Amino acid sequence: MADSTLRPYPTKVLLAWAEAISGNDEFRDWLMGSEYPELGVFCHALHNEPTSRAWMRHAGHHVLIALLEGTEGDEQAVAWLRSHGHDVIADMALAADNDDEATVRLMAPAARGEGDGLWVQIAVRIREVKNEIEAMNNDVHRIDPN
To answer: For the whole model, what pTM was predicted?
Structure first.
């Protein structure tokens, strides 16, 4: 992965991203048309839409790609995030991959009044989406068209 930066996002944009992750298409579409399309594309990529991941790679959003891959258990992606100083994003990936200790680490600063807890909220929403996708994939009652 090349670019290891993550641009700063205004709080309102992060709130919109959290809503979009949870399935609010209006917020996702708003992000897609804003100066932050990578966050809207992230929502598509979260649902395993391959061209979204390709677009994010091509556009240089490697931190977001590593976040996605980390939520899927890719230890190398989490290590890459940490090695580039993105400990919070690494913990977000782990928390979204059902790591309760990482969730506690994300909540600690907010509990001390050192943040608004937005990163943990986003991680939990990603976790909910990933777990729902996993549950659907493992549903024996679901008909496989293949």
So the answer is: 0.87
Contact of 64 with 5, CB cutoff 8 Å = no
In the 3-class helix/strand/coil scheme, how is 64-125 assigned residue by residue?
Answer: HHHHHHHHCCCHHHHHHHHHCCCHHHHHHHHHHCCCHHHHHHHHHHHHCCCCCCHHHHHHHH
- Give per-residue pLDDT as tens, 17-70: 999 999 999 999 999 999 999 999 999 999 999 899 999 999 999 999 999 999
Backbone angles phi, psi at 9, to 5 degrees: -115, 135
pLDDT digits (tens, 9 = 90+) for 81-94: 999 999 999 999 99
Q: Is 104 within 8 Å of 131 (Cβ atoms)?
A: no
Token pair 């549950």: residue = 135
In the chain, where the domains are located: 11-137
Provide the token pair at 8.
Answer: 């700063």
Residue owning tokens 């995030």: 81
